[in-house]
Input
Amino acid sequence: MRKRVISRGLVYAVLIIGVIAMLGPFYWMISTSFKPYGETGRFPPTLIPENPTLQNYTAVFNILPLDRFILNTLIVAGSILVGTIFLSSLAGFALARLKLRGKTVIFYGLLAGLMTPLLLLVIPNLVMSFHLGIFNTHLGLILPYIAWNLPIPTFLMASFFSAMPPSLEDAARIDGCSNFKIYYKIMLPLSKPMIATVAIFTWLYGWDELMWALTVTSTTAMRTFPVGLTMFQAGPYQMYWNLITAAATIGFVFIVGLFLALRKYFMPTGAIAGIKG
Amino acid sequence: MRQVNKIVFENVTKKFGKVVAVNNLNLKVKNGKFVVLLGPSGCGKTTTLRLIAGLEEVREGNIYIGNRLVNDLEPKERGIAMVFQDYALYPHMKVFDNMAFGLRNLGTPKEEIRKKVKWAAELLQINDLLDRKPAQLSGGQKQRVAVGRAIVREPEVFLMDEPLSNLDAKLRVTMRRELHKLQRKLEVTTLYVTHDQVEAMSLGDQIVLLRDGTVQQIGSPHDLYAHPKNKFVAGFIGAPAMNFLECDVVEKHGRFFLCADSFILPLNQKIKDSIMQVSEPKIVLGVRPDDISIVSGKQKNAIQVKIEVIESLGAENLAYSTMDGDSLVFKLEPASKVKVGEKVRILFEKIHLFDKNTENVIY
Output
């Protein structure tokens, strides 16, 4: 009995440490965002702001066009989201379900795309964006993001579609569906849980990406949210932690918001319950 | 005018790579008939069904449905409906939408769709399930919906691919009877695939028995049972399966005998004439368990065997024995007092003879 209490206590201790490690940084971010500048560098640090203020939240919009950064990121992340889901589901369906010549080559091509470090692609893509006239435009951000992001979602969608019973497709064909109709009337509605997963990862990617956004945009009006965050750095030795954390907290809301909106699709579903007894 | 043949296969061959799934199939299915494609796994029965449905491409030969050559037609243009082994209901659609989906794709007016679905739902007694999703249905209910989805389109031909094999034994018997009744009522030509010979015998007007893509025999259930064309058909149809015993044909003083280590049976004139056609002296004797009876006393041509196992099935008992290394099974009366280990004398009341090499029937 005593042993059980001790082992249970240990389990809880480990779990609590884990929770602190996970949530600690978030708490620190939110707490700092309510501190005045003078309190952010104090030692020992204050866990709860002594003089809580909302000023940081108005200041971030006054000092820099944070609303513009957010809008840019919403446009970019939203476009990648739609583009990735559309293309990865179509490609996944084709790879999983259609009789295609050169399917293996396409698969290996995707695999190669997965294994190429993004850093290698930055310079060639930058040159391409100049040539295409999309440097410092939304399209200059969106197109490469979709291309870079596509392999994993395509793999995920293809494996999801391969697991669907072939009889569903046969039934739809007998019911008069073309390949495209099978895709959007049967396969797509059934792949909602996988689409939600792809959506979250794509959104995170679009919302967080810094390196390419920093490279391909040149004017403040075209900067994205992550690039904007770095602009709160006053100089090499001075950080406005209160402003950075306030802006980061605002950005955090957009990610949590999407997760909450798609939450129900992450629950186990009876996706293929129409099959068998 | 009602055409006589609803489905015609003309020299149809289907290959997957080097594997021949269907080999030169010629088949005529009469209008309104219930035809069962029967055979073991991998015999090509499902491929045959899929060829009619248009789910597999016909490369060699021709398929006609109602006088129309359908080789190059899309599934929806063939006037067929199919019920799948795993039902293949669309999980995200309600029962009503599952049944209406095909009609909507055909551009049927809304009101007509509603009427047709209602008619089919009433026929199958699933009216109260129309608002449910497939996940909320039991196996039997899913089965009915799958059938409903097929009949709602009023097809020229029903195709059923082992539709009962996912149901439990009791429900399978009930659904089998209902399918039979439904087919009789609608009089729609039906092609039904199964590996279960009991299902085939009880449902089919005609059975097409396949093996390795080749038709072994086409005929009524009784034909296949009573007059099998070869050893495979004889062994496949009937439960328990036919007993096979290897023996030699011996001629003595102008009379012919079947000889094995444990018995010698004289052959009558009719059998003798058939045997004269065969050059090989080795033949296979086939006897159905129903055609073996236990006799008492010193009946002529009776053979002595030792009972090794008795299985009680309620209405009848099965006795197992061995004869010259081949196993032998026969039926016992439920009231029979025969015990395991006992020696009894049995008589073959009706026999079949097969060529040992070609396995074709001799008699």
Residues 243-355 of chain B form a domain with the OB fold (Dihydrolipoamide Acetyltransferase, E2P) fold (CATH 2.40.50.140).
